[in-house]
Amino acid sequence: MRAVVHDTYGAPDVLRLADVERPAPKVDEVLVRVHATTVTRTDCHMRKASPFIWRFMLGLLRPKRRILGLEFAGVVEAVGAAVSDFAMGDRVFGLRNGAHAEYVCVREAGLLAHMPAGMTFEEAAAVCDGMSQALGHLRKGGVGTGTRLLVYGASGSCGTAAVQTWSPRRRPLAGTSGLSLLETAQPR
Q1: Residue 120 predicted with pLDDT over 80
Q2: What is the pTM of this model?
Q3: Where are the domains of the chain?
Q4: Cα 68 to Cα 57: distance, rounded to the nearest angstrom
Q5: In the CATH hierarchy, which fold is given to the domain comprising 2-127?
Q6: How crowded is residue 53: how many other Cβ atoms within 10 Å of its Cβ?
Q7: Strand 180-185 relative to strand 173-177: parallel, antiparallel, unpaired?
Q8: pLDDT over 90 for what percent of the chain?
Q9: Could you tell me which of 20, 25, 22 has the C-alpha nearest to residue 7?
Q10: Where does the chain show beta strands of DSSP type E?
């Protein structure tokens, strides 16, 4: 498969297109063929290893991870034997290191979700940071039907996505922006 890689830190000209090994999904993973991805501020900082302290995490002299990219949207190409929520052909979006490649493997329990109907791959890739973060926190919090939720910072990307994902038709919800209460929604 092809991927945009970098073998050294620096300006955008350190990036190049290269052939790399295509990942194979593990038992609990989903293989996604990437149709759209983004270049975020985080990608730029990781490419430059700026601030310098990031090198202790990214690699002191050269990058540990050659493929940048976090946000993606695409189609499920294959699933591991234990995967139950996703199937081949599903349109998905999420967060995973190495998204600037033709394929990426993501754990089923990771930051991966089905794309809403009518959304383009480009739109999904552009919103998936907030949506994936919100989805991950909602899952980690073990929220379910009947759970009451207060979203602090409901006007930011993660907060807005949490409100939209939460579905007021099923669950009580309140959101804040600054010190003011934005909305209280009751289940219908």
Answers
A1: yes
A2: 0.75
A3: 2-127, 143-188
A4: 14
A5: Quinone Oxidoreductase; Chain A, domain 1 (3.90.180)
A6: 9
A7: antiparallel
A8: 60
A9: 20
A10: 2-6, 15-19, 29-37, 71-79, 91-95, 103-107, 112-114, 149-151, 173-177, 180-185
